[in-house]
Amino acid sequence: MYFLIIFSMCVILFSIPIVYAEEYLVDIPFGAYNPELNTPAEVWYDPPQMFITVGDAITWHNGDREGHTVTSGESSGRFGWMNNNDFGKPDGVFDSGLFKPGESWKYQFDESGVFSYYCTIHPWMEAVVIVEKEIPNFPHDATGKQLEFPLLQYTPDRNIEVNLTWDPPVIRTHEKVQFVYQFYDPDTNSNLAKMKYDFIIFQNGEKIFHDEGLSQIGGDYRNFIFDDSGSIVIRIQKIHSSSILAEEGVTVRGNIHNNEQRSVDFTTVVYDNPEKTNHEIYHTKPAQRLEIYYELMIFMIFIPAVLFIAALLWLKKKPNFSQSTPGAVKI
Ligand SMILES: [Cu+2]
Asked: Distance from the CA of 32 to the center of ligand 1, in angstroms?
């Protein structure tokens, strides 16, 4: 019984998604102080490129035998300093100052952007941190205002109501999104099937998708995968009935030739998806932490579960053994 309680507590504990700012580690490897000692890959800060999110922190650990700095700005590069005695230009965003072998320095990134940095003593040591904006966990329009599905909009002539939902609610690049929409007659609240329309997506002011459609009872949908981040407009326009007779019915209050105007716009934002690009190889430290969780989970759930089942089998077998013994004697 106690085991079951502990077991279910473990399951609940491990299934709660924990949202927190990540902490990353960048190592300054041994030999960074001397460019001739380092690896052919020339990794002075390991990893040399970090993709993180606003609010994340990086700790640099000096694993070398000399002191180093982590200074934002442009280095003179491996050969620049030899020729011009130029060690680079700090830009003042962050500067660790000198930290000794075995010591660490931590910095939290509160602004998005691309931050190159270097060591002011050893200007061949260069690396970069790319800080991406935090992705909201709720659907919102292009201005950031939270939205609730389904979104409702009337065409300007108010003859048709358009309902739109998209899934997942927060759109990221390289990930399939499904736009689902339905047309209604606002007066009768009845579903309008067999409506012709154009489905158009604009991104950053450019038309990136245009398709014609015919709505079914229960609506229609389009799947799309965005390659780029940025604000988008989803436009459903020229909404009109595929049957002329029905169209006359719908347009009693409007102009039958005016369906160009029957257009609704919805807006939202597409976010960069660091996990779905080659960025993911740099997220090595959180991955290691996940592995520890996994091992912990095996330790806390799997092993007790095996012991529990073994104990059950043993208890079941024991009475069977004592009952079967007299039976064996009879034979
Ligand atoms: Cu250095």
From this structure: 7
Q: How far is the CA of 49 from the centre of ligand 1 (A)?
A: 17
* Residue linked to tokens 């970069």: 128
Question: Which residues are found with C-beta within 5 Å of the ion, ligand 1?
Answer: 68, 119, 121-122
- Cα-to-centroid distance, 103 and ligand 1 (Å): 13
Distance from the CA of 114 to the center of ligand 1, in angstroms?
Answer: 21
The rounded Å distance from CA 85 to ligand 1 centre is 15
Query: Are 22-132 and 151-271 equal in CATH topology?
Result: yes
| Cα–ligand 1 centroid distance for 120 (angstroms) | 6
Ligand 1 mean position to 43 CA, how many Å? 12
271-287 pLDDT, tens digit each: 888 665 544 433 333 33
State the Cα–Cα distance between residues 272 and 174, nearest whole angstrom. 8
* Per-residue pLDDT reduced to its tens digit, 156-215: 989 999 999 999 999 999 999 999 999 999 999 899 988 999 999 999 889 999 999 998
Amino acid at position 28, single letter: I
Where exactly are the structural domains of the chain?
Answer: 22-132, 151-271
DSSP summary character for residue 287: H
Sign of CA dihedral 44, 50, 55, 58: negative
User: Is 22-132 a domain of CATH 2.30.33.40?
Assistant: no
Query: What CATH homologous superfamily does 151-271 map to?
Result: Macroglobulin (MG2) domain (2.60.40.1930)
Q: Could you give the count of Cα atoms lying within 13 Å of 134 in the half-sphere of its Cβ?
A: 14
User: For residue 174, what are the contacts with CB-CB under 8 A and spacing of at least 6?
Assistant: 225, 226, 227, 273, 276, 277
Tokens of residue 267, six digits: 């807006």
Give distance in angstroms: CA of 273 to centre of ligand 1: 33
